[in-house]
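go over this:
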Amino acid sequence: MKGLIRISVVFVVFGLFAASASAQTQDSYDYQSEFTWGINKNTYGGLIGGFVFKKARKLNDRLLETFGLEIMNVKHPQEVRQNSQSTGNYFIYGKSNYLYALRFQYGRDLILFKKAPQQGVEIKAVTAIGPTLGVVAPYYIERPADQGGFVTIRQPYNPNIQAAEIYGPGRLFEGLGESTLKLGANAKVALNFELGTVKSQVTGFEAGFLLDAYTSKIIIVPTAQNYSVFPTLFFTLFYGGRK
């Protein structure tokens, strides 16, 4: 988490410096709408936290109306990967559920610094709010069958299963059909830095804070403290087009 904060601060400082040096000195490229998608890294995610999609249209010279969708895999802070003593496969011991967050967002982007058509940085202040649909899917593991031999079975993890009995995780997305749904809401504030040199394309990053809250606790690791509110620092690399 500290590393993510340091990275975000470095990019924010760099973006502000570049914007103050060049973005205010030249005419901006005029556009009416843009669509971007990005890869997200956050303090409740793994190497890749999830994916972000956003559609924006200009309300005036400085303000954009936005519609967004975020698809995230939310991890518990105490999740630890370990390898099976029998197979060497990695699994997460103690994890009983995945949490996939589908965040629908409506917001405003305020242009703080405009960019020149083919150089400079465009900086926006980002705010958004909306409902969250939490998909809670059981975490499957593979273990030896009770009758012994070389037969294995896959089943949802429960705390009665010892680590030595686990051969590895289940198949990708196994258990998704057994999911339950949790309702929630989200809100975020961020700074958006558009760095592209081609006027019809959008390339850059966004860094900020997001709060995800559900109506009840989400049980991800039964033996640890679980939460209904997830405050998150995030960093998103994005790409897209405008017209």
DSSP finds one helix and 13 strands in the chain. Residues 24 and 156 are 57 Å apart (CA to CA).
